[in-house]
Structures are given as C-alpha cells and as structure tokens.
Design a protein that fits this description.
Layout lengths: L10 E16 L2 E21 L3 E5 L6 H8 L7 E6 L2 E2 L5 H10 E4 L13 H11 L6 H14 L16 H13 L5 E5 L7 H18 L2 E6 L2 H7 L2 E6 L2 E7 H6 L4 H8 L6 H4 L30 H5 L5 E4 L2 E3 L6
Parallel strand pairs: 3-8, 3-9, 6-7, 7-8
Antiparallel strand pairs: 1-2, 1-4, 4-5, 9-10, 10-12, 11-12
Helix pairs in contact: 3-4, 4-5, 5-6
This protein binds adenosine-5'-triphosphate (ATP) and magnesium ion.
Magnesium ion binds next to helix 1.
Length: about 325
Amino acid sequence: MTLQSTSGNEPILDVQGIKKYFPVTGPLGRLGGIKGQVKAVNDVSFKVFKGETYGLVGESGSGKSTTGRTAMNLIKPTAGKVFYKNKNIFDLSKKELRPVRKELQMVFQDPFSSLNPRIRVGDTLEEPLVIHSLLANKNERRERVFEILDKVGMQAEHYYRFPHEFSGGQRQRLGLARALISNPEIIICDEPVSALDVSIQSQVINLLQQLQDEFQLSYLFITHDISVVRHISDRIGVMYLGKIVEEAPTESLFETPLHPYTQALFSAVPGKHRAQKRERIVLKGEIPSPLNPPTGCMFHTRCPFAKDICRTEIPQKREMAPNHYVACHLYE
Ligand SMILES: Nc1ncnc2c1ncn2[C@@H]1O[C@H](COP(=O)(O)OP(=O)(O)OP(=O)(O)O)[C@@H](O)[C@H]1O
Ligand SMILES: [Mg+2]
C-alpha cells in the first residue's frame, strides 16, 4: 500500500456529482409508463490518486457497483462527470475512449466463472491485446500472457486450460491477469474477494498490493466487508442509499468514525476496532428503498440522534480533520 498525499497531486480518476436513476416500470413494461425512479447513486463525488487505493464500503444496495460501473463508462449517468486524467469520459468519442478503456480496467467478483467453458484461458487473456492492437504477433501475445500469468502466481501451462479447471482463487488471479495485460493505470475492483474463503481472500489481497507496488496501480476497491476495506484502502468513502456520508483516510475513519451510520456499521463487526469499545449501535429498521428515499438526510429514519433538521435538509459535507469529511447535521 502506498500512501499518497491528496494535495498537490492530480487525480487519476475524478468523479464529480454523479447521479444514476433507473426508471421503474409496472407489469406492462415501458408501455405502462414509468412508475418511478430508483435513485441508485445520488450525487457522489470522490477522487482516486496515483498509486492509491480508494475503498467504497456500504451495505447491499447502497449504490457501490452502480458507482463503479458508471466510473468505467459501462453505464451513462443521469447527471455528473467522471474525469480520467482530466478528460470527462462521457465527452469522448469512441475513438478517444479506446486508450482510456485500455488504462481503466475492472475486476468483478468471479470474472472467470461466466466465461465460455470451451475457450482456453490463454485465448481469453490475449483478447485485450488483440482488441487494443497491442501485439500483432501471436507468439508475442503468448509470451506476454506467460509473463502476466507468472505475475499473478500462475504457471505457463495454465494458458492451455479451460475456466472450469480452476478454483475460485485461481479464477480471480486470472481475472486480474486479464485486467493487467493491457497495462492499466487503475483497476476498479468490485467485490473481488467476496466469494472466496477467508484464507484465499488474504492471498488475493496480498497479490493486489504486490501488483500495486510493482506497477504503481491505483485501485477503486468496492466491498461490503469492513475488515477487507480497512486492510487494503488508503482512503475510504462510506456509502448509504446512493450517497457518500463520510470520507477519510483509513486510520482516521477507524479511529474516529463520525457519521452515526459509519459508527453503526463498524460497531456491528467483531474485532478490535475502537468503535467496539463504545456502545454497540443497533440500527432501527431496514435500509429504506432507493425508490422512495427519505427526505433530508437519507439516514434520519434509522439514526439514533436524528433532529428536526435531519428530516428536512440534506446535510452538506464538512472537513472535520485533514481529509476527513462528514455529511451530518450533528457536526454543524
Ligand atoms: N439496472 C438496474 N435497474 C434498476 N435498478 C437497479 C439496476 N442496477 C442497480 N439497481 C438498484 O440500484 C440500487 C443500488 O444497486 P448497486 O448494485 O449499485 O448496490 P451495491 O452497493 O453494489 O449492492 P451489493 O453490495 O448488493 O452489490 C439497488 O437498489 C439496486 O436494486
Ligand atoms: Mg455491488
């Protein structure tokens, strides 16, 4: 893990005010008209710097994957901008996007499980080299795949095998190999270890960190797992119902979680977090539906400290300590 200063340094990825609303239709589909909108991402901003790991953490349905997919330009946002090296990726032509696609890669939970079982791993790994016209010669491509297989702790002979012949951990290494082969600047990792056993999780996380150091990679690391996000991230954004409610350097966030939601999230996890030494905060009720999100602060319906203002006004983020931001009326 390379700790980056967040000032005097241009971000690799700069996400500015993205919103993603999904239309909801009735049983007749679009014929019946739009019944409402799922506000999956609702005004999210953050930056990822060179060599840094930015963790996005939050409960299921908080909008983490939608944020990651928007930052990858896999889905178009309802509003907002995503700057990759100072260019808004949504303004780029197809041709201008091509080099960005090469440098901006994504790894999912189990990327190799959904592959065509009859295509050899080597051919899948070579694909980006063909798509981006990086190496024209088949032998050179194969050599490059051997090299990358070695980087992720696999062997050259694995080139000739089929996806089902690998364990979950090995498949995740192959997923990383495929992301790495085109020399990316940043990899968006969406729950890359969530499907793995804990011991295998730490191997893959160690590998991610090793590769980060070797190639000066930046990661946007998406997970619902507090221990994983704590271990790997330099800075963390905590998401709740489509918004980042708190953002801080990892140490500051775990030492002094400020948002009642962050405190509740941390206090529910066994471990030696400082939040544990406080009283355990049990949240009332379920996470509300993003189809009909609460007014004011998204968290007020479950917050033990909610005041009148929380029901009516959206809290703005404030810097409470260096690079430690919280959006909560309790701190105004
Ligand atoms: N294509 C879609 N159409 C409609 N609603 C969607 C779509 N994709 C996501 N959503 C909704 O948007 C919200 C956010 O989903 P998202 O997958 O981004 O959450 P997440 O934080 O990644 O959750 P998880 O931890 O379960 O992966 C959810 O309510 C989800 O149902
Ligand atoms: Mg997700």
